[in-house]
Amino acid sequence: MLTRKSLSILPAIAALVIASCAVSSFDPNTGEVRSSTPSSSLVSQGLKQFDQMKREKKISTNPAYNAQVQRVATRLKSVINIPNAKWEFVVFEDSTPNAFCLPGGKVGVHTGLFQITQNDAGLAAVLGHEIAHVVLNHSQQRVNQATGVAIGTVLLDTVLNAKGVDKTGRAAAATGAAAAGTVGLILPYSRRAELDSDKLGTLYMARAGYDPDEAVKLWERFSAWRIKQGDKESPEFLRTHPLDQTRIVALQEFLPNAKREYKPM
Question: Mind telling me the catalytic residues?
Answer without folding.
Answer: 130
